Amino acid sequence: MAKAALTDVSITIDDGEFVGLIGHTGSGKSTLIQHFNGLLLPTKGRVFVDGVDLTNRETKLRMIRQKVGMVFQYPEHQLFGETILEDVGFGPRNMGLSEAEVITRVKDALALVGFDYEAVKDRSPFELSGGQRRRVAIAGVLAMRPSVLILDEPTAGLDPEGREEILDEIKALHHKWGITVILVTHSMEDVARLVDRIVVMEKGTIALDGTPVEVFREVERLEAMGLGVPQITELMHELKKHGLHVNTDILSVEQAEEEIIRVLELRDHGNV
After folding, report:
1. pLDDT-derived band at 102, boundaries 50, 70, 90
2. Do residue 134 and residue 239 come from a single domain?
3. Which of 184, 211, 238 is a domain's end point?
4. How far is CA 18 from CA 98, 116, 158, 220, in A?
5. Structural domain includes residue 12
6. Which of 31, 101, 173, 242 could bond to 5 as cystine, CB 3.0-4.6 Å?
7. Residue 15 CA to chain centroid, in angstroms?
8. Domain with 175 in it: what CATH number?
9. What three-state secondary structure class fits 121?
10. Tell me: the pLDDT tens digits for 149-168?
11. pTM (2 decimals)?
């Protein structure tokens, strides 16, 4: 018997948003994002990108996929070129662009992920570290100049240094280029420090949708879904349970440090 992967999902993502998509394995995250560029089409309902209906038979999905770039888990497995130039330039060449424009796009895309074109263009991507290969793979998507970038678990399998490299580049990319970013992740810490909005999936539906502070206030509900909150937020809740009157809407170590100092100073002065 067929089972619906998504049910009654209605969502609008505005230009320039940085959205985190979280949920337990099997909640529908990957299925949802594949509807955003027409890799999957809904059996019911419609999907629009910049006002274009992806379910319309006349819609050219190839054009949509140039606009909505998708980076799947382990994108470095899709690297195949003998050189970084060949790999990153593959998409723009398939768009029928001139070689001069291809080179310009490759330079720009590599710069966006922290590479110098002249230093790496003739190197094999397979000589690089895991984190560097992943950045090259992301550059290959960016060279298409999408207005929306979707990343499905972009740090999966990387060591801590590689994770930080990728996340810092994604954050800088959003800041510098202003493109819409949708980040699928299991890391509560990552979404807490990176995104403006969190969408929580559960059993093929949208269970929560709000700012990181709003979503992470729902501790019990998240735990019931098999999720959690950032460790620092959990710490603040524990401190409150033990009698320290702290604000629990804390998402970073820096915020926690300021809040604990504030509360302790108040207590020392007899105001708590």
Report:
1. very high
2. no
3. 211
4. 32, 26, 22, 25
5. no
6. 31
7. 15
8. 3.40.50.300
9. coil
10. 999 998 888 888 888 888 88
11. 0.90
| DSSP label at residue 4 | -
Q: Which tokens in the block code for residue 129?
A: 């570290």
Q: How far apart are CA 54 and CA 32, in angstroms?
A: 14
Do 251 and 152 lie in a common domain? no
| Any domain includes 165 | yes
Q: Mark whether 54 and 111 lie in a shared domain.
A: yes
Token digits for 164?
């930080």
What band does 206 get if pLDDT is binned at 50, 70 and 90?
very high
Whether the CB-CB separation of 210 and 198 falls below 8 Å is answered with: yes
Mean pLDDT of the chain: 92
Q: Residues 185, 245: one domain?
A: no
Which pLDDT score, from 0 to 100, does residue 118 have? 96
Number of DSSP helices (H) and strands (E) in the chain, helices first: 13, 8
Residue 148 has pLDDT above 70, yes or no: yes
pLDDT value, residue 77? 86
Please report whether residue 224 resides in a domain. Answer: no
Question: For the chain, how many structural domains are there in total?
Answer: 2
The H or E element containing residue 214 is: helix 212-216
The helix (run of H) or strand (run of E) holding residue 131 is helix 130-142
Q: What is the pLDDT of residue 271?
A: 62
Q: Distance (Å, rounded) from C-alpha 226 to C-alpha 241? A: 22
Residues 272 and 162 in one domain: no
Expressed as residue numbers, the domain containing 246 is 230-272
Contacts by residues 204-212 (CB-CB < 8 Å, ≥ 24 positions apart): 204/4, 204/5, 204/6, 204/7, 204/9, 204/27, 204/28, 204/31, 205/6, 205/7, 205/8, 205/9, 205/28, 206/9, 206/10, 206/11, 207/23, 209/11, 212/20, 212/251
